[in-house]
Give the backbone structure.
Amino acid sequence: MKCFIFLSILIMSGLVVEKIMSDVEKPDYDILSSEGNIEIRAYKPLVIAEVLVKGQRKESISEGFRLLADYIFGNNESNKKISMTAPVEQTRQKNIKEEEIWKVNFVMPRRYTIETLPKPMNPRVKFKEVPFGTYVVIRFSGINDYENLDKHQKYLESYIQEKGLLVSDFPKYAFYDPPWTDPSIRRNEIIFKVE
């Protein structure tokens, strides 16, 4: 009986998350090729809001998320709320004086350009246009802890080497689901830009 209740809760939570996330805008891309859970994608141009954060990966994404959420929830010159999108993305930057620096970004809804986005009150929030680009991506579930990210990044790097692809130095980590989502149904990705 307990097993049945647990499975019912798991299925229901999955349906709720799927419904919520199906209404959230995500970047447009075309799949150029696919092997298992690895895809080569052509992303259409987009606009991102980003912040730079110093510190360890886990703490940096929390701080970056908070700063960006503050902006989209109305801390801008127009006091305008902006729809949440997915994924939340995080990219390691080159270390400065042995300190880890991370870029955390939200993709802005398609209806906005840099010119039409409300100006942030926090000067740390910056906008950037990301042009059309080709990326190699691995998709996986689970918790976004070091072990899970490292395991999938190594697998993706092996694929990249096998295919002879030239990619960016640092990958982008992309997290699509709220933290309360059951890890078994989360959508996480590791993304390298193909040069």
Observations:
- The chain has a mean pLDDT of 91.
